[in-house]
Specification:
With about 450 residues, the chain is mainly beta. It has 2 domains: about 20-215, Single-stranded right-handed beta-helix, Pectin lyase-like (Pectate Lyase C-like); about 230-455. About 5% of the residues lie in helices and about 50% in strands. The chain has 2 helices and 32 strands. It has helices spanning about 1-20, 40-55, and strands at about 25, 35-40, 55-60, 65, 70, 75-80, 85-90, 95, 115-130, 135, 150-165, 170, 175-190, 190-195, 200, 210-215, 220, 225-230, 230-235, 240-245, 250, 255-265, 280-285, 295-310, 315-320, 325-340, 345, 355-365, 395-410, 420-435, 445, 450-455. Strands 13-15-18-21-23-25-27-29-28-26-24-22-19-16 form a 14-stranded parallel barrel. The relative contact order is 0.06.
């Protein structure tokens, strides 16, 4: 009897053991050639559909696979081997799109704006990996955004447990990665070159993008390296950000944002394709409400252990509309070659910044400001930083501002004041050091500052 039971159970154990091992499907078995000339859209999607039924892996061996939209499937890994390139076709009719829910800010965009080479809608447990290349091919669309932008390279709408790691993304026709309403997302060990934004993720007022990590990655982008809005519990760490626009730009509400151990440097190695410029703008721009109404809080922001080189400004924090800002803490920063503007914290609405702290910082500005520059009128910023009548710090409408162990330097003499503080409830300066021999009679300008605590 024992031998019979053992014999009966053995096939079952083998069956369950095999069932637990995901199956790997080679795209060549579905008709893909990888010759760089044949449009492989149908063959690649057949492979993805088959893997979706089995929750397996789709493997791209070395070759060049020309394709329109490939639809990502839940539970499927897309594995691009080293030497494999997925290349976007220039035929715009071969691309499909995601449709955001009615009432969301992005639902008002042209539907074609949400096209993508790799498209996932209502998917979970998806991974894109393998060491290969995804090439957006600079697909040009004369009817697209700015009369030139084509499909995004990767777009996931309504996604959970998305992982993108160990791939290169080149020459995106719009954003390299666009995430809309995606949570529990991990982006690591990727390299993005060219295109517009590197990673752009957007939630919506009632559905934030939550639990997102971007780590150990390199961005060399024509537009913002990382950007978006409606974020919660986001970590950006151990990244290199080179851009012909901003390093990190938050254009709406965000809660629990941590950026640490990152390097920012300009000028951009890839031109901003709209303007053809290469100069880098802000290292980090936090500007809820600057682009369009996006009501909600910016709070619990921690920026630490950052280095910056050749940026227009290290930090541009600007508040407009009906947004609010709670706590921002910036620590351990070294910046040099700051060529255009101060570090600024400025509210142009009735809502003041809550508590902002800068601690353990060394910033070197290029300087060269003239007495005429010191008379520049201060107006509300647009969507980017601008020159101001001071060269080091500008704060406007802040409840509590702390500068502790902050050291400012100049490459060239600057005849503007060092800092200007307006409508600050409590200003604390502990070991705030700056050049004292610039020939400026009032290096620190204050206006409507409630309380000043200053220690050497």
């Amino acid at each position: 009897m024992r031998r019979i039971l053992t014999w009966l159970l053995l096939p079952l154990s083998l069956f369950f053991g095999l069932a637990a091992e995901p199956r790997t499907l080679d795209v060549r078995a579905f008709g893909a050639k990888g010759d760089g000339r044949t449009v492989e859209t149908e063959a690649l999607n057949r492979a993805m559909a088959a893997a979706g039924r089995e929750k397996g892996e789709v493997r791209f061996p070395p070759g060049r696979y020309l394709s329109g939209t490939i639809e990502l499937r839940s539970g499927v890994t897309l594995h691009l081997e080293p030497g494999a390139t997925l290349l976007g076709t220039t035929n715009l009719s071969d691309y499909k799109m995601f449709r955001p829910p009615a009432g969301t800010p992005e639902a008002g965009f042209k539907p074609e704006w949400h096209r993508a080479l790799l498209l996932g809608v209502n998917v979970e447990n998806v991974r894109i990996t393998g060491g290969g290349i995804i090439d957006g091919n600079k697909v040009f669309d004369p009817k697209g955004e700015e009369r030139m932008r084509g499909p995004h390279t990767i777009l996931v709408g309504h996604g959970r447990n998305i992982t993108i790691d160990n791939v290169q993304i080149r020459d995106s026709a719009n954003y390299a990665i666009l995430l809309e309403d995606c949570s529990d997302t991990k982006i690591q060990s990727i390299r993005v070159t060219g295109g517009w934004d590197g990673v752009h993720f957007r939630g919506w007022p009632d559905r934030y993008c939550t639990n997102v990590t971007i780590t150990d990655s390199q961005f060399f982008t024509g537009d913002d390296a990382i950007a978006g809005r409606y974020w919660e519990n986001v970590v950006i760490a151990d990244c290199v950000l080179n851009s012909s626009c901003n390093g990190i730009r938050v254009i709406g509400p965000a809660r629990k944002l941590m950026v640490n151990d990152c390097q920012f440097f300009g000028p951009g190695q890839y031109r901003h394709r709209t303007s053809n410029r290469t100069n880098m703008l802000a290292g980090i721009a936090l500007q809820p409400g600057a682009w369009d109404p996006t009501t909600g809080p910016l709070d619990d922001v921690h920026l630490s252990d950052l280095t910056m080189q050749n940026v227009a400004t290290p930090f541009h924090f600007a508040l407009k509309g009906n947004n609010t800002v709670g706590t921002i803490e910036v620590t351990k920063v070294k910046a040099a070659g700051v060529y255009r503007s101060t570090a600024s914290i400025e509210s142009w609405t009735t809502n003041a910044f809550g508590s902002v702290t800068f601690r353990d910082m060394e910033i070197e500005f290029t300087g060269g400001g003239t007495p005429a520059d010191a008379e520049i009128p201060i107006k509300a910023p647009g969507v980017d930083t601008r020159k101001l009548p001071v060269w080091g710090f500008f704060a406007r409408n802040v409840n509590r501002l702390t500068l502790e162990n902050v050291r400012l330097r100049l490459e060239k003499t600057d005849l503007r004041p060092v800092a200007r503080f307006e409508s600050v409830g409590h200003l604390q300066m502990n070991d705030f050091a700056y050049p004292k021999d610039q020939g400026v009679s009032e290096p620190i300008v204050t206006k409507a500052v409630g309380e000043i605590v200053q220690r050497p």
